[in-house]
Amino acid sequence: MFGYYLQLGLRSLRRNPVLTGLMVIAIGFGVAASMITYSVFRAVSGNPIPDKSEVLFTPQIDSWGPQQNIHGEPPYALNYVDAMALWRAHRAKRQTLLYSVWLSAQPDQGHGLPQGADGYAVTADFFPMFEVPFLYGSGWSANADDGHATQVVISEEFNQRMFGGANSVGREVVLGGHAYRVVGVTRHWNPKPRFFAASGSTSGFRDPTDFYIPFARAVDLQLDTAGNNSCRGNPGFNGYAGWLQSNCVWVTPWVELDNAADVAAYRRFLESYAAEQQRAGRFAWAPNVRLRDVMQWLDYRQMVPPESRVALVVALGFFIICLVNTVGLLLAKFMRRAGEIGVRRALGAPRKQIYAQYLIEAASVGGAGGVLGLVLTALGISGVGILFRPQIARLAHLDLSLVGLCLVLAVLATLVAAFYPAWRAAQVQPAWQLKSH
Question: What stretches pass through the bilayer (predicted)?
Fold first, then answer.
């Protein structure tokens, strides 16, 4: 009976091409608006490291006090003194400190003009903690951290620019006028959002990082941060050494904690450390610490751009309006065939067959609307940069999952919209229709 009802439905749609076209257009535009904005929202709100997001935490310590902090929240990063104290305590399975740096780069042969490169000063645990994949070589060892080694890990993209994509392990690259020996080349790795150094709604969606150098080496060279650097009060420091001892926050710490007991123990350690600083007179306020995992951190830093949420809500509202219009059009279409329904009911057709016929007919409308919506979605994604910043817009793409979702959503939404018109059609009284016709 499904094939028969489908044939009846398609024949009915052909008899009213204008009404059918209006329904297909309504469904198509509603689905397309929803899918375009959802493709952006999906890209910016996903879990950037799903395998380990629940065991990676960033500690926060209030080094500013209640008069200077952010609505009672500790600063988003640590100053150098607190960061090194946590590092030396080594209370986690793995831990890393990092900050952003920007340097000029030149390959070891010295051919070509220098170019700017975006990187991070990190410690050895950074690579296993964040599951950084390697094309050649590996990260450096903890001994390299202790020895302030002049080693570097570069990205696949940076390796292509500097060395033509060849295995560059053992070769040198000049960064900021200093030579570094390449120990590893990462495969393409650019988690979105860039959770480990999130400092705003756009910083997490930049191009892949070019290089990673040892944190201790960066401090030895007095490299300033290329990221956020926030100070409170009147720091009154002179030179780089004074900056390291100030309350300016610019170092992001991360720790790996395997279970709830480890998390609780590390939180107690943070509270104990803050209390110790209070007793020493460095802090004049009660301990105020936080320990957030990856998803909690991204939510706190508001990494999902607000415009993506607003656009998604508006698009869903537009889709609902399209469905309401579709309900009216289907109701008008079905009730125009009341006489046909009355004859079928008089000949013994049960109500469930009326439901089946008209819901199948509505599903065919939804399928056609889904195809139209798919075409409009592909066109809309190519122009999504009109609504969103380039860093966000280029993340949206049409893949098989979005194709499937587009078609399924169109059919299911049309079936929901058709339920009331189909119910009204099934309630037609055969006697009234036979008497009037």
Answer: 21-41, 310-334, 355-388, 400-423
